[in-house]
Amino acid sequence: MILIKSRDEIKKMAKASEIVAEAIVTIKQAISPGISTKELEQIAEEVIRSRGGVPAFKGYRGYPASICTSLNQEVVHGIPSASVILKEGDIISVDLGVIYKGYIGDAAVTIPVGKISKAAERLIRVTEQALYEGIAEAKVNRRVGDISYAIQKFVEAHGYSVVRAFVGHGVGRSLHEEPQVPNFGTPGKGPKLKEGMTLAIEPMVNEGSHKVVILKDGWTAKTADDSLSAHFEHTVLITKSGPEILTKWN
Length: 250
Ligand code: MF3
Ligand code: CO
Prior knowledge:
This protein is α+β, with helices and mostly antiparallel strands. The chain has a single domain (7-245), classed as Creatinase/methionine aminopeptidase superfamily (Creatine Amidinohydrolase, Alpha-Beta Complex), CATH 3.90.230.10. The chain is built from four helices and 15 strands. The strands form four sheets. It has a five-stranded antiparallel sheet. A hairpin with a 6-residue loop joins strand 7 (168-170) and strand 8. The protein is globular. The site of 2-amino-4-trifluoromethylsulfanyl-butyric acid has 12 residues, from strand 5.
């Protein structure tokens, strides 16, 4: 069942999402060569807890950390570590969820570390724009497949592939609610979108093949062909007047 959120639930989700955005901005500012992904997690925890939030990922299905930090060829679910030190030219995807008074916001962003290659810049730009192409379809009476198709079409037109092993999702009372929101699909197919639905739309885009492998830690997903990968995500509310991005950071 796809939950429709009440005005009061939306307020709590908006607050959770505001904390997500603030934590992401703080992490963006902290990212530079020499910092460890563990330090980034500590920065996120500090922001989240000081605002009355709780990290949504820690303990979720046994996930061991408060944020996901996925470097370069890593797609999603990289685990922060004191021994992973950022260096110039890396790209890092940071994924972060917050619970506030029982309600959840979820977002992700891929950030350059210092100066990066033109190829990496383009991958990041296309992935972020793919998210906005998907969000533009998040309207009353459209269907989930319209979001999926808009993302896939845009990404593939730029010569990249969308990851299929992971998908976007409903979000709010739980981190993962119905419906699934794949980044590939068919226009006009899937559940119809209604006012008050809240979706986490999250394209994961690979430079090469869409295929991923899971590393020995049981979490980190990496491209099977060792190509670069990027990830952007927002929590979006469907309103009568169009999509409203709850996790907006600028
Ligand atoms: N944004 C990701 C998702 O929606 C983060 C989940 S990571 C987990 O799937 F560790 F919490 F599983
Ligand atoms: Co998500």
